[in-house]
Amino acid sequence: METAGDVRLDKWLWAARIFKTRTQAAEACRAGHVKCEGTPLKPAHNVRPGMVLTVQQGDITRTLRVLGCLERRVGAAVARQYVEDLTPPEEYQKRRAPEFQPLLLRPKGMGRPTKKQRRQLRGLLPDA
Predict the structure, then answer these.
(1) CATH 3.30.428.10 matches 1-87
(2) What is the pLDDT along the chain (128 residues), one digit of tens a residue?
């Protein structure tokens, strides 16, 4: 693991594959979506192993522990060695919930579901 030295926060978030681009990582930091112990961090903040970060991505809040410093973007399998995901499973379920809510609760008189809606329903409901 590349643990020697500190790395910029935006660079680490990008290298550890938390965000797709470094620009997105920097914008999330500037917007206050990345925090450490409740304190918003700037993109240039140095990341050290052992830090616990809270990252707001859409409607879920991810809690991540830094296990090592990365300067370059690496493959997903390697990136997992540098991050420990402490996010409770309930947070990830929040992401799926609104996805199928409108499909299950159809207003009366709306008619039959379309073919696309039926496929979406079939993919979301457990096999019977």
Answers:
(1) no
(2) 555 568 999 999 999 999 999 999 999 999 999 999 999 999 999 999 999 999 999 888 999 999 999 989 999 999 999 999 999 988 887 776 555 565 566 677 778 888 988 887 777 666 64
